[in-house]
Amino acid sequence: MTFSTPIVIIENNHLFDVSAKIGLLLLAALIAYGVAKLLLVRAAHAFAQRTKSKLDDILMEQGVFSRAALLAPAPVFFWGLEFFPQLKDILHNAIYAYMAIAVILVMTKVLDGLVALYQTFDVSNRRPIKGYVQLIKLFIYILGGIAVVSILLGKSPWGLLSGIGAMTAVLMLVFRDTILSVVAGIQISANDLLHKGDWIEMSSMGADGDVVDVALNTVKVQNWDMTITAIPTYKFLDTSFKNWRNMSESGGRRIKRSIKIDQSSIRFADEALIERLSKVQHLAPYIETRQAEIDTANKATGVDPASRLNGRRLTNIGLFRRYAVEYLRAHPEINQSMTLLVRQLNPEASQGLPLEIYCFTTRTEWNAHEGIQSDIMDHLLAALPEFDLKAYQRNALVDGRGTA
């Protein structure tokens, strides 16, 4: 009599009975998932330790086997259909839909594992595939969603696809940026325009730094101020940008700087200046050879030495220009196999005579390059007085911006 009353209450309470069955079924499914996950992960770990392949290790890191354990509750759910005979058809479709979702999740994790494996190879920096894999995942999600809906409705997926065909215009509008990005990704890869790790400049987007990620819809650039700029991938088709990769690979980085010479300090070199500069190691051979050529030419043409304007003469600006060339040729951190010149640019009354230094350093790292460039310019600016030359400095009174 003590146990009969509760039993009668449970049998007559249909709602409690259904809730208990659902609870027990979900508990059994959860246990099945936990056991399957434990067994799969342990088995995969033991297998990975016995092989030299990186694939199984990466699949474990990506959680592929944990995702695969999501399929374990399906047999439990099928067994539990016997408790709900009235809802058997509906629940049957729901279980298949659950299995389809689990398979989709496993497939996407496998793709993530393949991407991670591909990134262990050097070719991944030159030929990134992350964007293409994201496109494949997008198709998997779309097709998987169609499959899940068709299973739940109990209809053929082809019928749903024909209905989606009528929504093509809407889909084209919704996925416009994605489609453009796919085309851009193909062009970038085919023309070898962009790699992960490249230094790029895209001023219109405020990007100046290293490419840290190339994905389907965006390219992430870490700027030199450590900020991140996300650029839509399709922008690389219609917006100009500068890629410094070839500079890094060439073994030389360009110096292109000008020294503005005060034109009033330019003059012919007298004997005292020539004698003083003849003691400069970089200039001595040139002065000796050049002066001999000038003396021979002047003697052959019968030049009257009464005026400096007669015949050919050395100038302090010419000697300085030659000194700069010889100094750069002797510099250990200047690439001698690349263009090296010191030239005069068009003189401007308001800015003096520009003397441009054009050469390439052997170091392409930013900080090293800037250090070499600064040292060279420091030396040449300090050398100007030795040639009786002055650097041009704008007079504030002439500008009208200063006061006496």
UniProtKB/TrEMBL annotation:
Cited SUPFAM superfamilies: Sm-like ribonucleoproteins
Entry keywords, A to Z: Membrane, Transmembrane, Transmembrane helix
Transmembrane residue ranges: 22-43, 64-84, 96-119, 131-152, 158-175
Keyword Lyase found: no
Chief place where the protein resides: membrane
Statement: the UniProt record of this protein carries the keyword Transport: no
Pfam families in the cross-refs: MS_channel_2nd
Compartments, record wording: Membrane
All residue ranges annotated as the Mechanosensitive ion channel MscS domain in the record: 177-245
Protein name, UniProt field: Mechanosensitive ion channel MscS domain-containing protein
Origin species: Pseudodesulfovibrio sediminis
Source lineage: Bacteria, Pseudomonadati, Thermodesulfobacteriota, Desulfovibrionia, Desulfovibrionales
